[in-house]
Amino acid sequence: MENTGALKGLRVVEMGQLLAGPFAGQLLGDMGADIIKVEPPGKGDPLRIWGQGEKKVCWEVVARNKRSVSANMRVPEGQKLVRELIRHADIVIENFRPGTMEKWGLDPAKLLEEQPGLIISRMSGYGQTGPYSTRAGFGGIGEAMGGWRYIVGEPDRAPSRMGVSIGDTLTATYGVMGILAALHVRDTTGKGQIIDAALYESVLQITESLVSEYDSSGFIRQRTGSILPGIAPSNVYYCSDGEYMIGANADPLWKRLSAAMGKPELGDDPRYATHIARGENQTELDEMIGAWTKNYTVEEMDNLMTEYSIPAGRVYRAPEMLADPHFQAREAIVEVETETHGKLKMQSTFPKLSATPSSIRRPAPSKVGQHNAEIYAELLGLDADAIAKMEEEGIV
Known about the structure:
This is CoA transferase. By secondary structure, the chain is α/β, with parallel strands linked by helices. The protein has helices at residues 20-30, 58-62, 76-86, 100-103, 108-114, 139-145, 148-151, 166-189, 199-205, 210-217, 251-260, 275-280, 282-293, 298-307, 318-323, 325-329, 372-380, 384-392, and strands at residues 11-15, 34-39, 66-70, 91-94, 119-124, 194-198, 234-239, 242-247, 312-314, 333-338, 342-347. It folds into two domains: 11-206 and 329-392, Rossmann fold, CATH 3.40.50; 234-317, formyl-coa transferase, domain 3 (2-Layer Sandwich), CATH 3.30.1540.10. It has 18 helices and eleven strands. It has a six-stranded parallel β-sheet, sandwiched between helices. A three-stranded antiparallel β-sheet has the order 7-8-9. Helix 2 (58-62) links the parallel strand 2 (34-39) and strand 3 (66-70). The chain is elongated.
């Protein structure tokens, strides 16, 4: 497939594993950048065997649009090899514990001295500075420290997780945002820079006014299950054959929902007519709506909410996504011919750019170091004998 992406012509060296670094590479690769993923020889990135279900296919999504080389970063020869690759790159992504790159002779500050236009995105649990910087930090730990885990779940139970590695992917997204901003600066000044994206700070960034609420009034948000206190009605309700989400928490929407329920008088009822009143009577309001929705199927409810122009929708799983005509019309899910699993459906590239659309141009590499010969020859001028010798010595 032709590369029409906005980042066509940029080369990225992706270093790191599980999951922030690789997801950042996926985002940049989808947008057209040439992603050279550096993996340790042997088993490679643990993402190769991650995922749920009988077949582990997480790798097929995260490693699309990438070429794989192997390099043993624990030996000087492997470190030298990667240093040479970086000399041919515009961007470096890494998500090791702070100090690791320096230990390998790849201190980003020194790399920047040698290549003033280089952009280096560093993703870690706690950031590159501060008293916790050298601690190990996974996504779940960042979610806990950033305030997310405490407020997710039912109030009478321990904090819940999202079901996906949201801390890692948020950090990757902010890391990519930093890269795009740094590219603009480089276009105007010719100079690159180092981006420091911490897991806990990425989570903190999306917690809205959580800290400010405590600072201004001592209020601490708590776990509230499926609702947001004071915002009503906005909840998941049970139909006769499944779950359905309704969000009618604005005054005009509530009046329309009241009419849809066959009780238009509730739209002006003092108990529910205003945002404040509905929040004060949230529990009884949800119970009333829930008693009504269970008399309808999901499809019937969906038709009714569409008729009355009320924001609402099914609670989707993968089967519903694949069957939905809107997903199909927008090609939100595409089929990719993978090297390991054959044809595999996965999420497409987002967001959609009108002039420089992103794309999935190559499947995830099935083997560690699959592109050693191609890349080491193309960029470093190494011949087959030199590469074979490095393989014998455990360098690649």
